[in-house]
Amino acid sequence: MKWLFLFFLIIPNLSFSQVDTCTVYKDLYKTAKILNLKYQEKISKQDSIISDQDFVVSIKQQIIFQKDFMLKNDSLQFDLYSKQIKLLNENLSIYEKERAKEGKWHKRFMPGFIFGIVGTVLLIHSVDYTLP
Fold first, then answer.
1. Given phi > 0 = left and psi -120 to 50 = alpha, else beta, which region is 20?
2. What percent of the chain is helix, strand and coil (3-state, nearest 5)?
3. d(CA 20, CA 69)
4. Cα separation of 77 and 84, whole Å?
């Protein structure tokens, strides 16, 4: 049994050759360097994507600001127009009330007819005296 134990213990150790640790570290260093470069490329791509997205966000914020500004101005103009229409309607109603209060003697036939005849006679009379 001892022999069997020694056989299984010594034979595997002899069959495996020892690897140079320096080459292992060099391979690991090369792998780490490659991974580091790939990581830096990914980071730079992500940074460029983030900067592009920040640019798009800033443009969208400017558009939102302009939209809000235009909406505010439109609402102010709408308020001014509605106030102007209200004031014009009030002026029209005041003017119509003034017209209703005035006397309507010029709309009657007889005073107009009489004033027309008197005016014509006075005009003929004044022209007759001014002619040589």
1. beta
2. 90, 0, 10
3. 73
4. 10
